[in-house]
From TrEMBL:
InterPro entries for this protein: Etherase_MurQ, MURQ/GCKR, SIS_dom, SIS_dom_sf
GO function terms (MF aspect): carbohydrate derivative binding; carbon-oxygen lyase activity; ether hydrolase activity
Protein name as annotated: N-acetylmuramic acid 6-phosphate etherase
Keywords: Carbohydrate metabolism, Lyase
Record-annotated SIS domain positions: 54-218
Swiss-Prot/TrEMBL GO biological process terms: amino sugar catabolic process; peptidoglycan turnover
Length: 303
């Protein structure tokens, strides 16, 4: 069988899956998930290179992250994308998702949409991709026409292109500047790439987006200091974060948050003696980097 069809291969190990007891089926499925973890581990150097190329571009205020996929891969891409605003305050205007078949495909599978390369070109063209944008294409097979068309067009427009696929030497990986192979091999349930392949894609996107946001200064002391406190649970989390970092009481942390419209970075600086206006100015001067702003506030950084 060709390498391009590894995810479609029937594994001799699991050919009698339906004859196994439930406990053994669960063991087998867990084995597939473990294989996904190892596939991501092997892909870390490629992910590191993709992150290294992306971060300098994303420092520009107009640069966008554009995800593209079909079926399971597209839905996984969307799940990663929608978390960036509440978790890191990444602007909604700088997150785009191309999902084959449109948003309706998230709730109801539209398998035929993955073959519509022209739709992908039209949808991406409507976004006017440009140098500085990051376009990420995800496809287990590595041959999905919709995703391949988007990556090919994005690259021709000068955008940075990243591809995640689960089969080696496939057109999608060859089309992107930064190919990331997640070689999960045959699925426990042959061809069901929502299993090991899907898990590896979810993990890889988690790693990619989180590491990018860490590099962009959206994490401080291991905490989500650009988080948006949009409900009661997140307000409590915001208070806990400021309390932990500032070393003050919860009441003092809440007061600092209230004085800064619940902007965590500003509140942390206020908790360390800055006025709300000074906190805002420090963050503007350091492009939102709280570590640098803290050093400037404490007189340890004169840059």
């Amino acid at each position: 069988m060709l390498n391009a069809a590894r995810t479609e291969t029937v594994s001799a190990r699991y050919r009698a899956l339906e004859e196994m007891g439930t406990a053994r089926v669960l063991d087998a499925l867990l084995e597939g998930q473990t294989a996904a973890t190892e596939a991501v581990r092997r892909a870390l150097p490629a992910l590191d290179a993709a992150i290294g190329a992306s971060v300098p571009l994303l420092r520009a205020p107009e640069a966008r992250l554009i995800y593209c996929g079909a079926g399971t891969s597209g839905r996984i891409a969307m799940m990663d994308a929608v978390e960036l605003n509440p978790t890191f305050s990444w602007p909604q205007s700088r997150i785009k998702v191309l999902l084959a078949g449109g948003l309706e495909s998230f709730e109801e599978a539209r398998e035929g949409a993955e073959d519509d390369a022209e739709a992908a070109r039209a949808e991406l063209s409507a976004l006017t991709p440009r140098p500085g944008d990051i376009v990420i294409g995800i496809a287990a097979s590595g041959t999905t026409p919709y995703t391949l068309a988007a990556i090919t067009l994005a690259r021709s427009c000068g955008a940075l292109t990243i591809a995640l696929a689960n089969n080696p030497d496939t057109p999608l990986l060859q089309a992107a500047e930064h190919p990331v192979l997640l070689d999960t091999g045959p699925e426990v349930l042959a061809g069901s790439t929502r299993l090991g392949a899907g898990t590896s894609q979810k993990m890889a996107l988690n790693l990619f987006s989180t590491a990018v946001m860490v590099a962009l200064g959206k994490v401080y002391r291991g905490q989500m200091v650009d988080m948006r406190a949009t409900n009661a649970k997140l307000v409590k989390r915001a208070i806990a974060i400021v309390t932990d970092i500032a070393g003050h009481s919860e009441d003092a942390a809440r007061a600092a948050l209230e004085a800064t419209d619940f902007r965590l970075k500003d509140a942390i600086l206020v908790s360390h003696g800055a006025s709300p206006k000074q906190a805002s100015a420090l963050l503007e001067a350091t492009e939102g980097n709280l570590s640098k702003a803290m050093r400037q506030l404490q007189g340890q950084d004169t840059d």
